[in-house]
Task: inverse folding
């Protein structure tokens, strides 16, 4: 049997959170329904953040209460313990928390210092474990920070070790501003896979410097089998200057399946969802292979 690569679709959260076009709750539910039909195994539905901070994510509690039925697993981003409590109250049992590897990024993103951020994450992880909630921890700017420059690999390895003591359901190494290169990705992920195995490790790549798909390949070579991706390549971190564009789901599916992996994602249905997303935000979307894939599926 072919080996499986798990793709978590993040267009409805990471894709939309920095867009000038604010979709309604109804539109976001329609988008999630279209993405669920693709067969992607995991879907991020939004984030439980203050609507004053990120108005694009307002109404995530309404979305959680009206999700379409699907075999996909739903999750949401929570920024802190209050967000965790709101998500649990809304019935969401799989959460993502994002912490940055550097002092500068934490201060500019959430106005907390590095130590305070890790302590907050550990408190959420420990409470979630006691309450049966899965937590996916994102270690942001793991390769380069927009405020401090390149991040030392030794620092990231030590931070992963600290977080793993609190048993996250998954820990994702995130190239938040799209600055990683394949050699650095393979070196880091190989060390982590050797130490912790592939079951609880994943990667989240952006395509700012056109190396997103190459970095997915490098992580695959290191043994990573869990990735985030965003339909049409939509996304970008609103707090990180220069970060625009997540690696596109259709590109990741194409790469993995051409190499013999199974993703469970139906490409024509995914391309339909990308077209719907483009109509909703008023701007055509698509990954690097979108035109070719569209012709192949015609």
Result:
């Amino acid at each position: 049997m072919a080996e499986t690569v798990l793709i978590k679709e993040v267009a409805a959260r990471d894709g939309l959170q920095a867009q000038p076009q604010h979709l309604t709750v109804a539109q976001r539910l329609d988008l999630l329904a279209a993405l669920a039909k693709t067969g992607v195994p995991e879907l991020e539905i939004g984030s439980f953040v203050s609507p004053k901070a990120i108005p694009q994510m307002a109404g995530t509690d309404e979305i959680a209460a009206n999700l379409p039925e699907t075999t996909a697993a739903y999750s949401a981003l929570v920024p802190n313990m209050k967000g965790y409590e709101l998500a649990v109250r809304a019935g969401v049992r799989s959460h993502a928390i994002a912490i940055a590897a550097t002092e500068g990024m934490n201060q500019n993103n959430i106005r907390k210092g590095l130590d305070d951020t890790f302590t907050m994450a550990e408190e959420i992880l420990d409470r979630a474990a006691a309450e049966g909630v899965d937590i996916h921890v994102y270690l942001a700017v793991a390769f380069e920070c927009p405020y401090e420059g390149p991040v030392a690999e030794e620092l990231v390895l030590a931070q992963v070790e600290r977080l793993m003591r609190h048993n996250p359901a998954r820990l994702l190494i995130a190239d938040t501003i799209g600055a990683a290169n394949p050699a650095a990705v393979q070196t880091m992920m190989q060390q982590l896979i050797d130490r912790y195995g592939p079951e609880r490790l994943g990667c989240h790549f952006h395509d700012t410097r056109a190396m997103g798909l190459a970095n997915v390949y490098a992580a695959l070579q290191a043994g990573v089998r869990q990735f985030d991706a965003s339909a049409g390549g939509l996304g970008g971190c609103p707090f990180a200057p220069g970060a625009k564009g997540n690696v596109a789901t259709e590109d990741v599916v194409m790469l993995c399946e051409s190499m013999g992996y199974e993703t469970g994602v139906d490409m024509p249905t995914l391309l339909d969802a990308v077209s719907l997303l483009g109509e909703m935000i008023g701007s055509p979307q698509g990954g690097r292979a979108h035109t070719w894939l569209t012709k192949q599926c015609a």
Summary: The first helix runs from residue 11 to 15. The mean pLDDT is 95.
